[in-house]
Amino acid sequence: MRTTTITEAKNGLSALIDRVRSGETIVILDRGTPVARLEPVTSDPDASGRMKRLGRAGIVRAGNAAAPMDLIRTPAPGLVVGASAVQVVLDERRAGR
After folding, report:
1. In CATH, what number is assigned to the domain containing residue 15?
2. 38: part of which helix (H) or strand (E)?
């Protein structure tokens, strides 16, 4: 994500728009404080725009196979009576899983 000042944005708006067209997000700063964000317009701004940004950043990768429905429909294992879900998660983190 690129940042720019208001003055730079006014003087180079066409160049910034070109960068946004290519998928980049630009934050505009006023005296060092973020005040606006220029980002590409998408048909579904909540999902597809974020996913595309995360994909470009290498954080996520779009799947190309169908979801494993048998795994999704399988009930999750239950907790042992008296066990703490928080403690189980902490133990897994300590074990590096």
Report:
1. 3.40.1620.10
2. strand 33-38
Q: How far apart are CA 15 and CA 32, in angstroms?
A: 21
Q: Is the pLDDT reported for residue 28 higher than 90? A: yes
- Residue 19 lies in domain: 1-62
Residue 71 lies in a domain: no
Of 13, 37, 15, 34, nearest to 25 (Cα)?
37
Q: Is the dihedral of CA 44, 18, 12, 34 positive or negative?
A: positive
Global confidence as pTM:
0.44
- The number of distinct structural domains making up the chain is 1
Written as one letter, the residue type at 17 is: I
